[in-house]
Write a structure and sequence with these properties.
This protein is α/β, with parallel strands linked by helices. The chain has helices at about 10-15, 30-40, 55-65, 100-110, 125-135, 170-175, 180, 185-205, 215-230, and strands spanning about 20-25, 45-50, 70-75, 90-95, 120-125, 140-150, 150-160. It folds into two domains: about 10-170, Vaccinia Virus protein VP39 (Rossmann fold), CATH 3.40.50.150; about 185-230.
Length: about 230
């Protein structure tokens, strides 16, 4: 993979970045997404934020090698600290991390979210925790996608600020308000696998000399929820 050939996962993230948007990609790593957005003509201003020095240096080298130093600002920074007021960023992308880490980055950087029009988030796990953060901070989920690549299932969550308080019920938070409506084959396969895994864990717990009552109740509740959704 490189900026000319993005992975399916990153190309789907890129697909939700509006044309001519000013972007901050947080956790940019190699800066392939940032570079692709500029090379595709989707953006001519991207902040590529990276907290670890090694990837930051790789990103800077990649941007320079592609001749994109004018369009891409590579910054060594923690989370949304990479964004400066003068950047006038409209879209933030955060991909390839756990949902909890993405939610923490958003939580710590709330002051930088004031002018943001769209978040394009791709949590590897922990989607429920991320959806809870979004709904608690007045972001509405406007698009969701689930995809499979190299045996991994990924979700993409696109959220935009809203003045109207949003409410999602537990099922919508766990499964995704839009994914649950569509219930495509990848969605069904993912949750069938979760059901199998959690049923096995529950069976194992019940055999313990002192079965953990709280955990058992939690797993029973989860399995009932999955059963209701998958039918
Ligand atoms: N976004 C790329 C992708 O989806 O392919 C890279 C994903 S990589 C697994 C996660 C990157 O996020 C790593 O390079 C890591 O150093 C960076 N990262 C983790 N926490 C961060 C934070 N708080 N601020 C900025 N970057 C962070």
């Amino acid at each position: 993979m490189d900026e000319h050939h993005l992975s399916k996962r990153l190309s789907r993230v890129a697909a939700y970045v509006p044309e001519h948007s000013r972007v901050a990609d947080i956790g940019a790593d190699h800066a392939y997404l940032a570079a692709a957005l500029v090379l595709n003509g989707q953006s001519n201003y991207v902040v590529a934020g990276e907290v670890v020095r090694g990837p930051y240096e790789n990103a800077q080298a990649e941007v320079t090698a592609q001749g994109l130093d004018k369009q891409i600002q590579v910054r060594l920074a923690d989370g949304l600290d990479a964004i400066e007021a003068g950047d006038q960023v409209e879209t933030v992308t955060i991909a390839g991390m756990g949902g909890s880490l993405i939610a923490e980055i958003l939580e710590r950087g709330q002051d930088k979210l004031a002018g943001i029009k769209r978040l394009v988030l791709q949590p590897n796990v922990g989607e429920e925790r991320l959806r809870r953060w979004l709904v608690n901070h007045r972001f509405q989920i406007n698009a969701e996608e689930i995809l499979e690549e190299d045996g991994h299932v990924y979700e993409i969550i696109v959220a935009e600020p809203t003045m109207i308080p949003i409410q999602y019920d537990e099922r919508e938070l766990v499964f995704g308000p839009l994914l649950i409506e569509k219930q495509g084959p990848i969605f069904r396969r993912k949750w069938e696998e979760v059901r199998e895994r959690e049923a096995a864990a529950l069976a194992q717990m019940k055999t313990a000399s002192q079965p953990p009552a709280d955990k058992i109740a939690h797993f029973r509740h989860r399995l009932a929820l999955i059963g209701e959704v998958l039918g």
